[in-house]
Specification:
Blueprint lengths: L1 H13 L1 H19 L9 H9 L16 H6 L10 E4 L2 H10 L10 H6 L28 H15 L3 E8 L11 H9 L5 E10 L10 H9 L5 E8 H9 L10
Helix pairs in contact: 2-3, 5-10, 7-8
The chain binds adenosine-5-diphosphoribose.
């Protein structure tokens, strides 16, 4: 028993990938707090501990989203009513946009989303190690380490949604409201009419081509949400959003 403990301790302390992941996460966490983008009551060491306990020692295909409950309870995140921006299949443009302006915030602009964005991680059964390669891919198994994290973090982001909520969807694809997306399967289902006034869909289109707000999948979206919640949709040419990205002094209200 003694040897076993020492062995796994040595592995977890000296494995370069595990040390790198811890350092990456703590560095990103501290940078985010230093840039005053999050409450300084957050403790990056505690966040790391709560994070690793979700998946270390577990089969990387058997990490339910609830495994990240302790992490989500450790992170202190102020709600940002009226500025929350959801998205689906618009990852690049939505983040190019929010990087330039403070009027909207995506999950990836919050502490926990910022830290994990772009990272891959997993553990292994009966091991103290943390891996950043050889982890199951997004669709390899349902309850994989990374996907369950994004499901859980998205659930928390949607639970906190309040006021006027915006969603940037992709008007260049056949189904802008994709039934298998996180936006459809997790976020919309958690929208609470008691806290949310309206949902505004920004349908990003290429030169007024492609899908319109009449699209059947958007009608499904409208049916999904509580009727007490005001719904509107606007098709906005991608070029208009690009203009707003290149001219960050344009008032946010003029972007769509
Ligand atoms: N393979 C790999 N990664 C995937 C896959 C996949 N098959 N599907 C989704 N992802 C990851 C990618 O990182 C991708 O950019 O999830 C991201 C978002 O996927 P989308 O299908 O574009 O959108 P959606 O599933 O609706 O998730 C976005 O959830 O993250 C929250 O608040 C956020 O509203 C946003 C929504």
């Amino acid at each position: 028993i003694y040897l076993g403990v020492v062995h796994s301790h040595v592995l977890s302390s000296y494995s370069p990938s595990s040390e790198n992941l811890k350092k990456t996460i703590i560095d990103k966490c501290e940078a985010f707090i230093q840039n005053n983008k999050s409450s300084s009551a957050n403790n990056c060491q505690k966040i790391w501990s709560a994070f690793e306990q979700a998946f270390v020692g577990r089969d990387p295909c058997n990490v339910p989203m609830e495994a990240y409950d302790p992490l989500m309870h450790t992170v202190i995140q102020d709600p940002v009513c009226n500025r929350m921006l959801f998205w689906s299949k618009t990852k690049k443009i939505v983040h190019d946009f929010t990087e330039k302006r403070d009027c909207f915030l995506t999950l990836e602009d919050t502490l926990v989303g910022f830290i994990m964005n772009g990272l891959t991680w997993c553990g292994k059964e009966k091991s103290n190690e943390t891996f950043t390669t050889g982890c199951p891919g997004w669709t390899d198994c349902v309850n994989n380490t990374v996907r369950s994290f994004w499901n859980r973090a998205s659930a928390a982001f949607a639970d906190a949604a309040c006021g006027d909520v915006t969603a940037m969807l992709n008007g260049s694809i056949a189904t802008p409201f994709s039934p298998t997306s996180i936006f459809a399967t997790i976020e919309v289902k958690r929208f609470k009419a008691a806290k949310i006034k309206s949902l505004s869909v920004v349908l990003v289109t290429k030169e007024n081509k492609g899908t319109t707000c009449d699209d059947p999948s958007l009608q499904d979206l409208q049916k999904e949400i509580d009727p007490k919640l005001k719904y509107n949709c606007k098709a906005v040419p991608e070029s208009k959003i690009q203009d707003c990205i290149s001219h960050p002094d344009t008032a946010c209200g003029a972007c769509w």
